[in-house]
Structures are given as C-alpha cells and as structure tokens.
Amino acid sequence: MIVWRLARKLFAPTPAEAYNGTGARLGGGRWNSRTIAMAYASENAALAFAEYFANLPQTMAPTDLQFFPALVPDDCILPSPTLPTGWDAVPAGFVSAHFGDEWIASRASLALIVPSVLVPNVNILINPAHDDFQRIVFQQPIAFTFDQRFIAKSAPA
Fold first, then answer.
1. Which of 37, 33, 38, 47 shows the shortest CA–CA distance to 4?
2. Rounded Cα–Cα distance for residues 46 and 29 (Å)
3. Among 49, 83, 118, 124, which residue carries the largest CB count within 10 Å?
4. Interatomic CA distance for residues 69 and 54, integer angstroms
5. Are 135 and 73 in contact (CB under 8 A)?
C-alpha cells in the first residue's frame, strides 16, 4: 500500500525521518500519548493534506512542506480493528491515545489502518520501532505549497 505523509522539510530532511514518529512522540496525537513514537500517514495525498490542515494553527502556513509517499508492504498492515467508544472525540482524548499506545507496545504489526475523523477514508498508523520498519520503501518527496485560498479562509475574522 502506498501511504502519504505531509511534513515540513525542516523536521524531515529525509523520507525515513518523515516516518520516525518524533513529532508525535514530542506532542502526542489522537492515537498516541507523548513519549510514544508513532508516524501518521493517510491512504492518499488529499487526506494527508486534510489531516495536516485540520491540525494547523490558523496563523501558520509553512513554506517547506513536502509529501512523503512510501510503500508499506501489505503483509505488514493490520486492518482496522473494533475501536473503543470515543475514539473519534473532538478534541481527541485519552481513549484513542491509550488504544494506539497499546498497539505500539504489542508490536503486533508495522502498520495499522484506522478511520479518519474528518472524512470516510483511512489513515495508517506506523510503528517506527517495529522490526519491519526497514521494509518500507521510501519514495522521493514531492514539494507542496498551500493554495492561498485555504489560508485566506482560515484567517481569523
């Protein structure tokens, strides 16, 4: 499966570093607590953008964004499991982070499919500490620039 991440070149100078989970480890996320490394990816570039944009402070539009496509072997991906009630809370809460932390600790798979809260598509969680991480085939980054129409619509009134 080809997966997509949108990340700043500043924090991801190489494709492998885009998937090392450092940002999520430092700040936590919907599917992980702080101190737990996890990379978030999406099944397509449009969803990767939507997920990034949904979490972007309104005053920030980075100029060094890149898409980082990668090929994750299908046999390394677990399908979406039954998720606990409240996984889709907005803002994200403890339920989904605890679920993701347990998945990382279990080392059950390199990647796990989970639903997006934004649209009926899927995101892919990646465990950078899993033995199969070396099997990911990282593709060349693709530069991305925010269309100013998105920035204008997100500016405070």
1. 47
2. 20
3. 124
4. 20
5. yes
Choose among 45, 116, 103: nearest CA to 77.
Answer: 103
> Structure tokens of 1?
């499966």
Task: Extract the tokens encoding 81.
Answer: 């499991």
| Strand locations in the chain (E) | 2-8, 39-42, 65-71, 77-78, 111-115, 122-126, 137-138, 142-143
Determine the distance from the C-alpha atom of residue 154 to the mean position of all C-alpha atoms in its chain, rounded to a whole number: 21
Reading the block at residue 5, the tokens are: 């991440």
Any idea what DSSP says for residue 126? E
Contacts of 5 (CB under 8 A, 6+ apart): 12, 18, 19, 39, 40, 41, 42, 48, 67, 68, 70
**What pTM, to 2 d.p., does this model score?**
0.92
